[in-house]
């Protein structure tokens, strides 16, 4: 699994914001782990909204 983001983001915000960010990231990652294995179900609304890599680009609506 590759997580894309700023490598030192937590050090650039206040301690409280850093703790909240860490908890949110941990909760999102925990959502995708079931029985110790990565589990992604694109039919589930949250999974579908969070997973963007490896999907075809959306077509332009012009």
How would you explain this protein's 3D organization?
Helix content is 37%, strand content 6%. It is mainly alpha-helical. The radius of gyration is 15 Å and the shape is extended. The chain has helices at 15-31, 45-50, and strands at residues 33-34, 37-38.
Number of strands: 2
Query: How many helix segments?
Result: 2
N-to-C order of helices and strands: HEEH
From the spread of the alpha carbons, the general shape counts as extended
Low-confidence stretches: none
* Major sheet details: 2 strands, antiparallel
* Overall SS class: mainly alpha
Report the end-to-end length measured between terminal Cα atoms: 34 Å
Helix content: 25-40%
Instruction: Provide the gyration radius in Å.
Output: 15 Å
- The strands making up the biggest β-sheet line up spatially as 1-2
Chart the SSEs and their pairings.
Elements: H1 15-31, E1 33-34, E2 37-38, H2 45-50
Antiparallel strand pairs: 1-2
């Amino acid at each position: 699994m590759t997580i894309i983001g700023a490598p030192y983001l937590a050090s650039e915000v206040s301690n409280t914001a850093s703790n909240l960010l860490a908890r949110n990231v941990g909760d999102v990652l925990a959502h995708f782990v079931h029985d110790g294995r990565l589990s992604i179900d694109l039919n589930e609304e949250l999974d579908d909204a969070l997973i963007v890599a490896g999907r075809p680009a959306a077509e332009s609506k012009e």
